[in-house]
Design goal:
A 6-stranded parallel β-sheet has the order 3-2-1-4-5-6, with helices on both faces. A 4-stranded mixed β-sheet has the order 8-7-9-10. It is globular and about 60 Å long. It folds into 3 domains: about 160 residues, NAD(P)-binding Rossmann-like Domain (Rossmann fold, 3-Layer(aba) Sandwich); about 140 residues, no CATH class; about 80 residues, Type Iii Antifreeze Protein Isoform Hplc 12 (Alpha-Beta Complex). Helix content is about 35%, strand content about 15%. It is an alpha/beta fold and about 425 residues long. It contains 17 helices and 14 strands. α1 crosses α15, α7 runs parallel beside α12 and α8 packs parallel to α12. β5, α7 and β6 form a beta-alpha-beta unit.
Length: about 425
């Protein structure tokens, strides 16, 4: 770990790492809060639909007026990426179609791109990563967000010579959450609509966290970056505490793990609603196996918690700090030329799945909406059924009825086939089929 020392050399040489940020929302603001205390890293430009809102965000996180005055603010992200003083672009909009357009422009301009926008990464990340590599720039997941942290744990285990059994994150899950809508979401969080409004919380965004969509998106990203694969029938969300990881997440434990080498999300509550002891709601984990008897004996000697066989154990991180940790990705790209997680295949997809009986003529309202949730699906199965990716399920009309719990397919909707993002997604499918 020498990112900090490498950064200080850049600072001493008078060549700070200069960043262009797209989107000054919560994630972007958390990153901005760390900039004044990171010598050698500067934000040259901030692109946001409302430059005034972006300036206010900077003040809110503690920037002084001199720093704000030295930073350019714009509502034109595409023009920002042509700037010669931007070395790394951070895409933090959360809007999948916009994210793909921004990433393609950054790559074309020879900029490294940190893709906070996991929705865009899952929609077409494998192709974006391939094109970035060909252009000699880094395309990377965002450190601090859970997928990159999971990738780090998987890489650690494999570099040590361990076989990875499973990897993923924790969340709060109940089966009924899949039907949640922006109108019902706050009750599940224990909030009133007024409390949420005062807190500036977006009901559709928070609903995507709750209804399983965000979990599916993040696990698809991990699968596409690590070679781990999704379970065939979607995430199981087994209730599991940190003291149980090794025992619950072992091959053959039906209802928890379908196969060795998969992604899975564990729940912080039991199906009766009671709290799981030592839950991992905000954290990430990797479960792995000793490759030989000697390593298993070392587990015992060093107090490692294992399954009954003594061979399977787990390492976990109890929390993640979102944008406060984003510097790791920026500096890794700029100073090492390395991603902190990057798609290298198409193994997992997130298919739009009906929350209720949908009728022909209805307009789908996208991730976290009232119509569909995103179900993690093996890419091969998504391609076989022609599944509509959740990232393109917004503002498209249904051509025919879809029963609750059933996948929505390309044939079920009227979509603009001339749209550049649609065409790029189709090009990704053709280029990678299912890895």
């Amino acid at each position: 770990m020498n990112l900090y020392s490498l950064l200080q050399k850049r600072a001493e040489a008078g060549r700070p790492v200069r960043v262009g940020l797209i989107g000054a929302g919560k994630f972007g603001s958390m990153f901005l809060s760390q900039v004044p205390s990171t010598k050698g890293l500067e934000v040259a430009v901030i692109a946001d639909l409302s430059p005034d809102r972006a300036r206010a965000a900077c003040r809110n996180v503690g920037w002084d007026e001199a720093r704000i005055a030295a930073t350019r603010f714009t509502d034109d992200a595409m023009a920002m990426m042509t700037s010669p003083d931007v070395e790394v672009v951070v895409e933090a909009t959360g809007h999948a179609p916009a994210g793909i357009g921004h990433a393609r422009k950054a790559i074309a301009e020879g900029k490294h791109i940190v893709m906070v926008n996991v929705e865009a990464d899952v929609l077409a990340g494998p192709l974006l990563a391939r094109q970035a590599e060909a252009a000699g720039v880094v395309y990377t997941m965002a450190y601090g967000d859970q997928p990159a942290l999971i990738c780090e744990l998987v890489d650690w285990a494999r570099a040590c010579g361990f076989n990875v059994i499973a990897a993923g994150k924790g969340t709060k899950y109940m089966p009924e959450y899949h039907a949640s809508t922006p109108d019902t979401v706050w009750g599940y969080y224990g909030l009133t609509p007024e409390q949420a409004r005062v807190g500036g919380m977006n009901p559709q965004m928070f609903n995507s966290f709750l209804d399983g969509t965000k979990s599916g998106i993040e696990m698809a990203a991990v699968a596409n970056a690590t070679g781990l694969t999704p379970p065939p029938n979607g995430l199981a969300f087994p209730p599991c505490g940190t003291h149980e990881l090794a025992d619950v997440l072992r091959p053959g434990n039906l209802g928890a793990l379908h196969h060795s080498g998969q992604v899975e999300v564990i729940s912080s509550v039991h199906r009766d609603g009671s709290q799981v002891a030592n839950d991992l709601r905000w954290g990430v984990y990797v479960a792995f196996e000793a490759p030989n008897d000697y390593a298993a004996r070392c587990f015992s000697e060093y107090g490692v918690v294992t399954d009954p066989s003594g061979r399977i154990t787990a390492l976990y991180r109890p929390f993640h700090l979102i944008g406060l940790e984003l510097n790791v990705s920026i500096l890794s790209a700029a100073l090492r030329g390395e991603p902190t997680g990057v798609a290298n295949g198409f193994r997992g997809d997130v298919v739009s799945t009906a929350k209720r009986d949908l009728r022909a003529g209805e307009m789908l309202d996208g991730e976290g909406g009232a119509c569909v949730w995103g179900k993690l699906t093996p890419a091969s199965e998504s391609l076989r059924i022609g599944g509509l990716p959740i990232g393109l399920a917004n503002r498209v009309p249904l051509l025919r009825d879809v029963k609750a719990g059933q996948p929505v397919t390309w044939d079920d909707v009227r979509i603009d086939t001339a749209d550049a993002v649609y065409q790029y997604r189709r090009a990704m499918e053709a280029a990678f089929a299912a890895s």
